[in-house]
Amino acid sequence: MEKGKDRKREKRKPNLAIALTPLIIMGVLLGVGYGVYHIRAQVLLVAAAFITGGIGLYLRFSWQEMERGIVDSIHKAMPAILIMLCVGILIGTWIACGTIPMVIYYGLKLISPKYFLLTACFVCSITSLATGTSWGTIGTLGVAFMGIAMGLGIPIGPAAGAIVAGAYFGDKMSPFSDVANLAPIAAGTNLFDHIKHMLWSATPAWLLGLFIYFLAGLRYEAKAVESEKMILIMNTLKENFNFNILLLLPMIIVFYYAFTKKPTIPGMLISSLVACILAAVFQKASLTEIATAINTGYKANTGIPEVDNLISRGGMMSMMETQLVAFTAFSFGGIMQRTGLLSVILDKVMKFAQKTWSIVLTTIGSSLVTAVVTGSSYLSMIIPGELLSPIYEKKGLAAKNLSRIIEESGAIMVPLIPWSMAGVYITGTIGVPTFEYLPWAIMNYASVIILAIYGFTGFTMAPRIKEDETQVGS
């Protein structure tokens, strides 16, 4: 009798076809549901997790076992998720005190009609770095720059490409960006090590783009053109915020904690506290206004839609959407791991990914395929990150290698896909087809080429030196 019970509880071993079924189903759900019907990714990921749970039951795993897998998977991501909440607080308070508006204002003053492409890329980089939003930068400054380009007689393809490249460079390098925060969560590393590691690939790609924009810009005849929209944005920022050198203090505090490898969350909270004090002193913000900026984000009311859209952001609640995607994706991944489905796939992948170059190419390919299928910046990082992180650990490669590759091969390539939400948004906002600006978004695809070179040479492929890579200094 006991032998019969033991036989009944014995787990079935999944073959490759069964192991791939959840990924295929998820690909179909996301490709059709997200790509065609624009259903929220987290809803589709819950459906994928439910189906994977059904396969787990078929393999004779209990719900309690699969639930444990979900909890373990989410537990690994909790330090990064807490940082995301702090990032929301940071954005809201930095805008409320005037730090981010001041950075945008002085960035706009750098515009030079003679070097339009170079300047457009540089200013969009600064703005996106300060705000953490590529879409917000493209929807405001991008539109203004396109107006200037038309006035200067500059072709719209190169102009749009420079804007997109700049906006996405700032986005991926900003500690306020959702993609920059999500990549280390998916890979199992931390935000600041991730950003610093990306400098090795992102900076050369960005500088290459600036050099090409400089050379290309020499062909265009420069003529002084005033942009009413640009002047309006600058004047509105100046009228609604009191600028002072002390407003750089919150930024300095965060950079100090990052570069001295001190704990991240205390540094962010101290920076936010200083920003709150500066908001009260320089912007005469009330306690209620500051508390609102912390919770739901700063709400601009300048009367100028372009400015309001650019700086109305931040707050803990702004991070909820991204965290929901992370929770649902990790639930799917947790079931895949606990039921052994993921290990079956990894065993097959490991047969190819034996050398560093093959691991890098596998990661790049996985991110690109996910980006093309789903059109989602988030999923193009989370899915390959969850799938491949055990390989990096087994091969002794730091998780920040993985986080760098999935962000630059996934999230940053998404705006170059015409049917992605980013591609549709950009085309609809600045009126330039994706394939027209794609060749000129040099930073976006140059990063991937540089990553492949690093994979073959081993250059900048950091070894794993810490057991817990969610702590700064890994």
Task: Provide tags for this entry.
474 residues, mainly alpha, 0% strand, single chain, 23 helices
Give a short overview.
The protein has 23 helices and no strands.
Written as H for each helix and E for each strand, in order along the chain, the element string is HHHHHHHHHHHHHHHHHHHHHHH
| Rg, Cα atoms, Å | 23 Å
Largest beta sheet, briefly? none
Strand percentage lies at: under 5%
Would you tell me the overall average pLDDT? 86
Helix content: over 70%
Number of helices: 23
Secondary structural class: mainly alpha
Unreliable segments of 5+ consecutive residues: none
Shape: globular
State the end-to-end distance. 53 Å
Structural features, described:
This protein has 474 residues and is mainly α. The protein has a domain at 79-312. 73% of the residues lie in helices and 0% in strands. It has helices at residues 2-9, 16-34, 41-58, 63-97, 99-108, 116-131, 134-152, 156-173, 178-187, 191-217, 228-240, 249-259, 264-282, 287-295, 305-311, 320-338, 341-352, 356-374, 379-394, 399-411, 421-430, 434-437, 442-457. Helix 10 (191-217) packs across helix 23 and helix 16 packs across helix 19 (379-394). The longest helix is centred in the first third of the chain and has 35 residues, at 63-97. The radius of gyration is 23 Å and the shape is globular.
